[in-house]
């Protein structure tokens, strides 16, 4: 196993179906997540770590869910979030990495933000990603991630039905 894999150990085959029917697995932690959710990593963020600058877990889920509504993801994309420069979320080895920082919104007000990294790799061709954009307010991330996925990773925008959000 690697740090990129998830595993439910010690489940007897006779109990596997009952486990898969548990509300926690059916409603929140699906053993069959979407492609983009499979590659999502987030440190604990400021909810549980005093040095973290931003909230990571809920924001990572929200941004990913929103991006999935706009882009057809057909191959693995690793998005990693970390709330502070300690980089427990290993943002530098992700396809797209988000490192928490303070940014300023359009009115100059301090808000939670991220520095965005692109192009990190693990494995035999490993290398660290480069800073793509600094001090991005978190509220501006969905369109930025969509743009990165379409223009840099060559994914396809979803066809939207009239009246669909």
UniProtKB/TrEMBL annotation:
Pfam family, one: NIR_SIR
Pathway: Nitrogen metabolism; nitrate reduction (assimilation)
Domain of life: Eukaryota
Required cofactor names: siroheme; [4Fe-4S] cluster
Ranges in a coiled coil: none
Entry's transmembrane regions: none
MF terms in GO: 4 iron, 4 sulfur cluster binding; ferredoxin-nitrite reductase activity; heme binding; metal ion binding
Domain named Nitrite/sulphite reductase 4Fe-4S: residues: 40-147
EC number assigned by the record: 1.7.7.1
Reaction(s) the record says it catalyses: 6 oxidized [2Fe-2S]-[ferredoxin] + NH4(+) + 2 H2O = nitrite + 6 reduced [2Fe-2S]-[ferredoxin] + 8 H(+)
Top EC class of this enzyme: oxidoreductase
Listed SUPFAM superfamilies: Nitrite and sulphite reductase 4Fe-4S domain-like (SSF56014)
Keywords carried by this UniProt record: 4Fe-4S, Heme, Iron, Iron-sulfur, Metal-binding, Nitrate assimilation, Oxidoreductase
Biological process annotations from GO: nitrate assimilation
Gene3D superfamilies: Sulfite Reductase Hemoprotein, domain 1 (3.30.413.10)
Entries under PROSITE patterns matching the protein: NIR_SIR
Similarity comment: Belongs to the nitrite and sulfite reductase 4Fe-4S domain family.
Protein name: Ferredoxin--nitrite reductase, chloroplastic
Organism for this UniProt entry: Fragaria ananassa (Strawberry)
């Amino acid at each position: 196993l690697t740090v990129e894999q998830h595993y439910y150990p010690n489940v007897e085959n006779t109990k596997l179906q009952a486990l898969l029917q548990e509300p926690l697995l059916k409603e929140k932690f699906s053993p069959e997540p979407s492609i983009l959710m499979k590659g999502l990593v987030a440190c604990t963020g400021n909810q549980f770590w005093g040095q973290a600058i931003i909230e990571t877990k809920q924001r990572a889920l929200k941004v990913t869910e929103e991006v999935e509504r706009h882009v057809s993801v057909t191959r693995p994309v690793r998005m990693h979030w970390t709330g502070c420069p300690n980089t427990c979320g290993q943002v530098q080895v992700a396809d797209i990495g988000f490192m928490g920082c303070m940014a300023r919104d359009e009115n100059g007000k301090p808000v939670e933000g991220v520095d965005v990294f692109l192009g990190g790799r693990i494995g035999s061709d490993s290398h660290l990603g480069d800073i793509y954009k600094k001090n991005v307010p978190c509220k501006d991330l969905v369109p930025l991630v969509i743009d990165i996925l379409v223009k840099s990773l060559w994914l396809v925008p979803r066809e939207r039905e009239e009246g669909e959000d």
